[in-house]
Each structure stands twice: as C-alpha cells, then as structure tokens.
Design goal:
Blueprint (H helix, E strand, L loop, with lengths): L2 E7 L4 H12 L4 E7 L4 E6 L3 H10 L4 E3 L8
C-alpha cells in the first residue's frame, strides 16, 4: 500500500522547486509527487517514508520537516 508523505519545505522560487522535484524523482518506489507553493508543502506518494523524503531534501540543502496537520478544533 502506498504511503502519503507530506513535508514542509521552503519554496522560495522556481529554481528551488526545480531542484526539489529533481531530487524527489530519484527516490525509488514513488508513485506521484506534487509541490504546493502556497503552503510550502511537498507531497509524495509511494513506498517511501517521511524520513527518506526529508533526507533527500536535506542533501540538496533544503530544511524539511514533517507536515503537521494543525486544524482548529470545532
């Protein structure tokens, strides 16, 4: 079953996004990936862990942290 990994990472410009996408494409066993520039969020699905995605992004100099779903309590 595919995992959905969401991480927060600084997406400052188009060059940053290109660099991030290039690094993510190299991860084995990913099915899909997406970047949400407004939320500074990278979403990867596949046989991958949050730690793997963060490690790959850190290798290219990006500070990535697990995405926290902080929704207000109703």
């Amino acid at each position: 079953m595919a995992n959905v990994v969401e991480v927060k990472v600084g997406l400052h410009c188009d060059e940053c996004i290109k660099k991030i996408l290039k690094a993510i494409k190299k991860i084995e066993d990913i099915e899909t990936y997406n970047v949400d520039k407004q939320l500074n969020k990278v979403i990867v699905t596949g046989d991958v862990t949050t730690e793997e995605v963060i490690r790959v992004l850190q290798k290219i100099g990006k500070n990535a942290t697990p995405w926290e779903n902080t929704q207000p309590n109703c």
